[in-house]
Amino acid sequence: MKPFLTGISCFFLGLKALNQQGLRRFVVLPLLFNFLLYGSIAYLSYHYLFAFTDYYIKQLPHWLSFLSSVFTLLFFLLFVLLFLSTFSVVANVFAAPFNGLLSERAQNLLYGIAVPERPFGTMVVQSIKRQGQFIYYYLPRFIGLCLLFLIPPLHPFLPFLWFVFNAWMLSMQYQDFAMDNNLVDFNTMRKEIKRSKRFSMGFGFIISLLSFIPFLNILIMPAAVIGGTLMWYKRQQNK
Questions:
Q1: Exposure of 40 by Cβ count < 10 A (0-12 exposed, 13-18 middle, 19+ buried)?
Q2: pTM, full prediction
Q3: Most CB atoms within 10 A, among 112, 129, 178, 198?
């Protein structure tokens, strides 16, 4: 349980560091990307989410109609998590160079450790390439989970599966910025994260949970980038 709670605390330490002098200007662009992310989710939710939920509720057998309120909540959560998972990955792909800069600055300012020097152009290309590797890893799993929609008896369990999936993927993506900065290759990054599953899941759990809280969720991207940098630092200390 302790590694799980430590993962949660890393996010809140990242949140606390947002206002630290020397980091503020690096936080602006990730904040903007997150604002666009949640603005898009709000727009889609307003225009499509309730229609999707209503459609699925109407497919329920008559004898389950007394559970319509429960299923409405479950389907609502399911589609929010589906939108959140998709848009978070896309937003992080576009924000990757700026998140990499924020992670680099946080590492230098908070822990006094400089990252290996690379020209900005090289770093941007590497960030895009790295996100391509992540998408290649992410897509088959995302599609596999989407296929579970074809199995109606599993529908009540899908919100929980999507929550766990979303937590794990976001944890991996936010931890990767510091690892990429420090020249840890993608496969090694995956192995390191798998070796500390509870630590990583605690971090992803709180990110996914707070994503549902309006206004606070705007701060998630920069806070998670700094939190992921702290997780990298803790791993280095334990080696």
A1: middle
A2: 0.84
A3: 178
Burial zone of 136 (CB within 10 Å; 0-12 exposed, 13-18 middle, 19+ buried):
exposed
Is the separation of the CB atoms in 95 and 176 below 8 Å?
no
Q: Count of residues for the chain?
A: 239
DSSP, residue by residue, the chain: -HHHHHHHHHHHHHHHGGGSTTTHHHHHHHHHHHHHHHHHHHHHIIIIIHHHHHHHHHTS-GGGGGGHHHHHHHHHHHHHHHHHHHHHHHHHHHHHHHHHHHHHHHHHHHH--PPPP--HHHHHHHHHHHHHHHHHHHHHHHHHHHHGGG-GGGGGGHHHHHHHHHHHHHHHHHHHHHHHHTT--HHHHHHHHHHTHHHHHHHHHHHHHHTTSTTGGGGHHHHHHHHHHHHHHHHHHH-
The tokens describing 204, both together, are: 């992803």
